[in-house]
Amino acid sequence: EDADEPRNPGSVGHPQMCLRPCLYFAAGNCMNADACEFCHHSHPTRPAHLDKRHRDSLRDMPRHQCAALVLPVLKQKVLALDGSEETMAILAKIA
């Protein structure tokens, strides 16, 4: 089945803009079927997210220290999406 065609309301915008994947559909027993508000397409494993304690630590950290921690990860993610010369030049300015 074509991933561009939504199977249900939760699958609209798959893969970038859809809602979370439906755990019940993945297990083969979504009772909401075509009315389900969660995505019925396959998804890669979701990346880990910071918990409240880690978010609080980042918020309380001095800005220069937070930037030193976050910028390398941000650069890596941006380059994975767009490795153009223009993007490289912008990233070089924030180094």
Question: What does the model show?
Answer:
This protein is an all-alpha fold. It has helices at 23-26, 52-60, 63-81, 85-93.
Count all strands and give the number. 0
Judging from the principal axes of the Cα atoms, what is the shape?
Answer: elongated
Report mean pLDDT, rounded to a whole number: 84
Task: Characterize the biggest β-sheet.
Answer: none
Share in helix: 40-55%
N-to-C span: 43 Å
Question: How large a portion of the residues is in β-strands, by DSSP E?
Answer: under 5%
Order of helices and strands: HHHH
Q: Spans of 5+ residues with little confidence (pLDDT < 50)?
A: none
Number of helices: 4
> From the alpha-carbon coordinates, what is the Rg to the nearest angstrom?
19 Å
Task: Specify the structural class.
Answer: mainly alpha
